[in-house]
Model the fold of this input.
Amino acid sequence: MRCSSVLVDVCTLHSAMPFVHICGVCLVCAELGRATWTFLHMLAAQYPDRPTRQQKRDVKQLIECLTRVYPCASCASHFKEIIK
Ligand SMILES: Cc1cc2nc3c(=O)[nH]c(=O)nc-3n(C[C@H](O)[C@H](O)[C@H](O)COP(=O)(O)OP(=O)(O)OC[C@H]3O[C@@H](n4cnc5c(N)ncnc54)[C@H](O)[C@@H]3O)c2cc1C
Done:
């Protein structure tokens, strides 16, 4: 199916910058998602088998912060539900 719908919408947490949506997909959010998944998977890959208390705390805080500051508001809210 060919989709010709290109619209500009606002889906940022800070709602300052309109993000381009194509066929209902936010391009900036998709790119942001790919970059964040790469970061999270690299973080997980180098995470020690026996983490210290500090390392556990750091990662827990990082994930919790992501649910608050992630630049796509709806993704942040979905992520918050998932990690509950
Ligand atoms: C915290 C967070 C919340 C998000 N919430 C939403 C949302 O609510 N709605 C929405 O439409 N999109 C959301 N996204 C974006 C979405 O997950 C995709 O990143 C985006 O749609 C791009 O899709 P893609 O097909 O290129 O997949 P990718 O972003 O490339 O990958 C998606 C999947 O592949 C896995 N993956 C990626 N890299 C690796 C790797 N190196 N090793 C193993 N597995 C890997 C990820 O765990 C993920 O399950 C979110 C992303 C993040 C990081």
User: Anything to note?
Assistant: Confidence is low (pLDDT under 50) at residues 1-8.
